[in-house]
UniProtKB/TrEMBL annotation:
Gene3D superfamilies: YVTN repeat-like/Quinoprotein amine dehydrogenase. Belongs to the WD repeat THOC6 family. This is Uncharacterized protein. One of its GO terms (biological process) is mRNA export from nucleus. Coiled coil: none annotated. One of its GO terms (cellular component) is THO complex. The lineage of its organism: Eukaryota, Metazoa, Chordata, Craniata, Vertebrata. Keywords: Repeat, WD repeat. WD repeats lie at residues 148-189. Residues 284-305 are annotated as: Disordered. It comes from the Eukaryota.
């Protein structure tokens, strides 16, 4: 990869190995880089330690999503899912276990796969993307067993509400849908943009990321390209299906997670939010590096051997 390609490289996805010693990162050129976390974090780490231990071409187009299941790394690009054995990758051996494509309603275009989530209960993976649907892959038998219809635009994010065996999905239609993973039926649909506390009509209604702790959900709408600002990050109580807190971050958030008694959210801008969620009201923004500095780090850690 030349300097021009490296300059325009973007990392779209990442996933840790089951042991936590390795980090896989997928870029817009269809490559996956496997980094040694222990080497990168070592006190004696040099420039070579920050480079991937292994780089390989996984897809013809961008690697939009990565997911680790029980010993297997799943990668997804334009309409295709491939499986890689983590043990073999750690030995620098690159050979896919299998590659599969969902059955799409039209053969004229290949929709991107934006999100994947693993349901450990039945060893299945739900995938969502540009065809507005969620396809459920049975990993035990290697077949797609269900298609969930309901979203009217791109599906951007998925997560499991494990205790209730429910799948949550968010898309560009502004809806968060809750599905019974056993029957495939949509049990609730939250149209977030219709709640006055969360509505930001001037910024659109897309949902870019969400996460759940069974009783609680955090979701984030994303703005349309070119529009400054973004709708507010919000915390929802899922038993009452109502928002309880709205966090006024100015930038668009790309990832959100629960960690102990805090919410972690990160995206565009210099702030990473840590907020108390167990019924509290506090929010503590933490300064992150400048975007230019972060971009430089991303290029330095790019998937190039």
């Amino acid at each position: 990869m030349g300097p021009v390609e490296r300059l325009h490289m973007s990392v779209f996805s990442q996933s840790f190995s089951p042991c936590g010693r390795f980090l896989a990162a997928g870029n817009n050129y269809g490559e996956i880089g496997v980094f040694s976390v222990s080497a990168a974090l070592s006190p004696d780490a040099g420039a070579a330690s920050l480079k991937p231990a292994l780089t390989f071409r996984a897809h013809e187009g961008p690697v939009f999503s990565l997911l680790t299941t029980d010993g297997v790394l799943l990668s997804a690009g334009n309409g295709e899912i491939s499986a890689w054995n983590w043990t073999e990758l750690s030995k620098k051996s690159v050979k896919p276990l299998w590659s599969k494509r969902p059955t799409y309603s039209s053969s004229l275009e290949i929709p991107e796969i934006n999100a994947m989530v693993w349901n450990a209960r039945d060893n299945s993976v739900a995938v969502g993307g540009g065809d507005n649907s969620i396809h459920v892959l049975d990993l035990e038998h290697g077949v797609f067993k269900a298609v969930l219809h309901g979203h009217t635009d791109y599906v951007h994010c998925l997560c499991m509400r494990e205790r209730e065996a429910e799948l949550l999905s968010g898309g560009e239609d502004g809806a968060v849908r809750m599905w019974d993973s056993r029957t495939g039926r949509c049990v609730h649909c939250l149209e977030v943009h219709k709640y006055e506390a969360c509505a930001r009509p001037q910024h659109g209604k897309w949902i870019s990321c969400l996460t759940t702790d069974s009783d609680w959900m955090v979701r984030r709408p994303v703005r349309r390209s070119g529009v400054r600002g973004a709708p507010a990050l919000s915390l929802w109580h899922l038993r009452s299906l109502s928002p309880t807190s709205v966090f006024p971050l100015s930038g668009c958030q790309r990832q959100v997670a629960f960690h102990q008694d805090a919410i972690l959210a990160v995206g565009r801008g210099r702030l990473c939010l840590t907020a108390c969620w167990g019924g509290g009201e506090g929010a503590d923004p933490v300064h992150a590096p400048e975007p230019e500095h972060a971009a430089g780090q991303r290029r330095q850690l790019g998937t190039q051997g």
